[in-house]
Amino acid sequence: MKFGGTSMAGTERIRRVARIVQRQQAAGHEVAVVVSAMSGETDRLVNFCREADPLYDPAEYDVVVAAGEQVTSGLLAMHLQALGSKARSWLGWQLPIHTDDAHAKARIESIDSDALLASMAAGEIAVIPGFQGLTGDNRITTLGRGGSDTSAVAVAAAIKADRCDIYTDVDGVYTTDPRIVAKARKLKSVTYEEMLELASVGSKVLQTRSVGLAMKEGVRVQVLSSFIDDDAPAADTIPGTMIVSDEELAKFQEGLDMERQLITGIAADKNEAKVTLTRVPDRPGAVAAIFSPLAAANINVDMIIQNIAKDKGETDVTFTVPGADLARTQALLEGQKEAIGYYRMISDGKVAKISVVGVGMKSHAGVASTMFRSLADRGINIQAISTSEIKVSVLIDEDETELAVRVLHTAYGLDAKDEAA
Ligand code: ADP
Ligand code: ASP
Ligand code: MG
Q1: Which of 189, 222, 253 is the last residue of a domain?
Q2: What are phi and psi of 189, to 5 degrees?
């Protein structure tokens, strides 16, 4: 069981979490619980680091930001004890959860679970702070923002759990962010592949890495709400959304998902920036000269467009990078102006990437053209396009994000029936 930041924000909520955990134990399960810091707490700790030194030491950053989860793990253990259960916390270094030494974005390598399993078998509920791990040199690490999801999946894999229930502030995975589109519909199931794409293009309901890990390790993941009454349907009845393999999909397609559409979900990401280099020489090696320095600086390029060569043997190249890397990108490419031989660099941080995702796309034509037509009908201009086997993404003006998501949600027949206007 994993509980996110909103679910752990304050005494009343942690008490409710303790009751949910106790109910699972009463239903006959041995339980390990992974918790996040209280919502807002990690941001607060990150700010202290920035104030201390804008170029802070990432190893010390990890010491600071891992603290939020230490607090909630101890508190949940206390609440469980107060309700009469046996419980104890297991900090990342106590298990330990071994990671590499990429501070602030560490990867889990292995988890020692023997002591944990013995304690659980003896009836003790294990409470594990998410987000944190330990390097080979015994330094504390953290797994990147939203990383408690990954901690939960990794623990579930290590102890061979029957299921990894991710409790959050919405009752499942929706066709799009339900906080933005009121007509979003809850999905009964999503495939690993679809969830991986949705998470990576902006649906922050699960950290992307946690989905990749679940897929690799075959962990059964359910997303469900912690904001429930004591008499709510038990987690074992799968009230939330199951993340399933392609093969399992059919089994979950009953009920709600009889209406499963070609498109499973829509996501928006406002954290990208667009860069255009004009009049780049149209010759072998020109594009490599642009992207090699970016790759060397670890800057992730997402969408790329190279326009049709003009008669002069020149071409415009447009691409996107994470907004946070825009300044570094500009500096790098200005330094390479001569070498690349471009004329002007134009950049725009006010863009949004809108993506439609669905495994149905593999076997159906026309998904992209529906997207382009629907956006055109509303006068929304497309600035760049990229596709994968199960995804189409377009870049648009950031101000049109909500409109675009709503229009596409309707166009692909995803709107919830009961709330349809
Ligand atoms: P937690 O603190 O529990 O980890 P997060 O804030 O990380 O919770 O993730 C839950 C949030 O994800 C929801 O409140 C919702 O606004 C957002 N979200 C974005 N896309 C979706 C989606 N497709 N389905 C459900 N929630 C989504
Ligand atoms: N507390 C961490 C964060 O806010 C990890 C998490 O909540 O998943 O990013
Ligand atoms: Mg989260």
Answers
A1: 253
A2: -150, 155
Together in a domain, 284 and 163? no
Model confidence over 139-168: pLDDT tens digits? 999 999 999 999 999 999 999 999 999 999
- Residue 125: phi, psi to the nearest 5? -80, 130
In a domain, 258, yes or no: no
When pLDDT is averaged across residues 252-268 and rounded to a whole number, the result is 72
Tell me which of 131, 204, 209 to substitute to probe ligand 2's pocket, judged by most ligand atoms within 8 Å of the beta carbon: 131
* Closest-approaching ligand to the CA atom of 241: 1
Ligand in nearest proximity to the CA of 17:
1
Counting Cβ atoms within 10 Å, is residue 261 exposed (0-12), middle (13-18) or buried (19+)?
middle
Euclidean distance between CA atoms 387 and 409, whole angstroms = 18
Last residue of one domain, picked from the residues 232, 253, 274: 253
309 C-alpha to ligand 1 centroid (Å): 43
- The residue to mutate among 42, 164, 226, having the most atoms of ligand 2 within 8 angstroms of its beta carbon, is 42
Instruction: State the alpha helices, DSSP H only, in 33-176.
Output: 41-52, 58-65, 67-82, 114-121, 148-158
Evaluate whether residue 95 is within a structural domain. yes
Residue 46 inside a domain? The answer is yes
Q: Is the CB of 146 under 6 A from ligand 2?
A: yes
Nearest Cα residue to atom 4 of ligand 1: 4
Helix axes 41-52, 67-82, angle to 10 degrees: 150
Note whether 104 and 215 are same-domain residues. Answer: yes
CA–centroid distance, residue 24 to ligand 3 (Å): 22
Report the domain count for the chain: 2
Are 325 and 214 contained in the same domain?
Answer: no
* CA pair distance 44, 159, nearest whole angstrom: 33
> What pTM does this model have?
0.91
Q: Is residue 297 part of a domain?
A: yes
| Average pLDDT over all residues of the chain | 94
CA terminus-to-terminus distance, the chain: 37
The CATH number of the domain where 191 resides is what? 3.40.1160.10
pLDDT value for 307: 79
Mutating to test ligand 1, I would choose from 1, 177, 206 the residue with most ligand atoms within 8 A of its C-beta, which is: 177
Full residue range of the structural domain in which residue 288 is found: 265-411
Residues 6, 124 within the same domain? yes
Cα(290) to centroid(ligand 1), Å = 36
Q: Whose CA is nearest to atom 4 of ligand 2?
A: 42
- List ligand 1's pocket residues with C-beta within 6 A: 4-7, 36, 146, 168-170, 173-174, 176-179, 203-205, 265
236 and 300 within one domain: no
